[in-house]
Design a protein that fits this description.
Helix content is 37%, strand content 18%. With 369 residues, it is an alpha+beta fold. It folds into three domains: 31-123; 131-262, Glutaredoxin, CATH 3.40.30; 265-369, no CATH class. Strands 7-8-9-11-10 form a five-stranded mixed β-sheet, sandwiched between helices. It has a four-stranded antiparallel β-sheet with strand order 3-4-5-6. β8, α4 (152-171) and β9 form a beta-alpha-beta unit. α4 packs across α6 (243-258). The longest helix has 22 residues, at 316-337. The radius of gyration is 26 Å and the shape is elongated. The protein starts with 10 loop residues before the first strand and ends with a helix.
Length: 369
């Protein structure tokens, strides 16, 4: 049987039949050099160098698909943080600015410096490209990020819902509350409960048992810019949603994305949630009617704006009532004030009391109708 010699990639046979092996390239001598080489490898699509520089990391099994995910980003730049932490400024298609996230750690020894951890970090919201293998779906204005293992029949429903939600919110009159929105929507579809928790930076998603989706607002890498908002869908609660339900959910969250540049004053969560629900149900008359019926059950000589806490917790029935009441109250403002409604809503949003809003009287008439 003929034998053959298999040599390492860096080895070769000399003309004298001797084996010569090239020495591996030296590791960076300090973290500054490590960042320079790591970023050059990513921008130059040099996978070999990337794998070498991350060879010491503890979650080695994910390096290959993390590398593939990096090619899907609009931009990514790694940098160092305190106590040898690794950070990344990264930007997704659909975003107009980068997010800064902690993504791992570094270590230096006599032999040089390496990335010793590149994975979701405890207590920190993880970027989706570090959580699961990705595919990017949709278009420039409605971007959907899903696992590569997700069924096309599932993802296409969310893509359609994202496009419908983006169009509905773009057409809505949100006034100055949406002044900083770039008009795009980014929807993240985590593959399971663990991925959902990692995206939120929490240890367990148990407190989200009655939540369909969350609008996650991250600080921009440029502190002078507005924050960046993405919709994160909860896979535990949305598996059986109809296409109409998906659109309703994403439209509600899309309002939060569009208005994320304006902080909500303490006690004004009902304004934010009521506006989001009011816009969402415009595309679903049956849902609007159901919520009005539910809001009627809360009438007591009128309607009282729900507290901030009413929108949290795990009591789905109480939450549903809070959303229905908030939607009805914002709807009353919009119907009574017409073109001036968003000015009043914006004032309430920021903790002010506009003189042209009389919710006790308006809701009392509505409750008695």
């Amino acid at each position: 049987m003929r034998r053959h010699l298999v040599l390492p990639a860096a080895c070769f046979l000399t003309i004298f039949g001797l084996v010569a092996c090239a020495a591996p390239p030296p590791l960076p001598a300090d973290v500054g050099q490590l960042m320079t080489k790591l970023n050059a490898a990513v921008s130059g699509r040099d996978q070999s160098t990337f794998l070498t520089l991350t060879n010491g990391e503890t979650s080695a099994g994910i390096r290959t698909w993390v590398w593939s995910n990096l090619s899907l980003l609009s931009q990514v730049t790694f940098k160092t943080g305190e106590t040898d932490s690794l950070w990344a400024n990264w930007q997704l298609p659909g975003d107009d600015q980068a997010i800064s996230s902690q993504v791992g750690s570094l270590s230096c020894a006599d032999s040089g410096c390496l990335v010793t951890d590149l994975a979701p970090q405890s207590g920190a919201a993880a970027p989706i490209w570090l959580v699961q293998p990705l595919q990017v779906l949709g278009d420039d204005q409605a971007v959907v990020l899903a696992s590569t293992t997700a069924a096309s029949s599932d993802t296409q429903g969310w893509v359609s819902a994202a496009k419908a939600a983006q169009q509905a919110v773009a057409a809505a009159d949100l006034g100055d509350l949406a002044a900083s929105w770039n008009g795009n929507l980014v929807v993240e579809l985590p593959q399971d409960a663990s991925a959902f928790a990692q995206l939120l930076g929490i240890s367990s998603s148990a407190d989200y048992a009655s939540t369909g989706a969350v609008t996650s607002v991250e600080e921009s890498a440029d502190s002078s810019r507005e924050p960046v908002a993405h919709i994160i869908v909860n896979p535990q609660t949305t598996a059986t949603l109809t296409p109409d339900d998906q659109t309703l959910l994403l439209t509600h969250e899309a309002v939060h994305v569009a208005t994320s540049g304006v902080p909500v004053a303490a006690g004004a969560t009902w304004v934010s949630e009521g506006l989001a629900e009011s816009v969402a149900v415009e595309g679903s008359p049956s849902t609007a009617a159901s919520e009005q019926t539910l809001a009627k059950t809360a009438c007591n000589g009128g309607l009282t704006p729900p507290s901030d806490a009413a929108f949290g917790g795990t009591d789905a029935a109480s939450q549903n009532t809070a959303y229905a009441v908030a939607q009805t109250l914002v709807g009353l403002i919009r119907s009574h004030l017409g073109g001036d409604a968003m000015t009043a809503v914006s004032a309430l949003w920021q903790g002010q009391t506009p003189s042209n809003v009389d919710l006790p009287a308006w809701s009392q008439v509505w409750c008695n109708s």
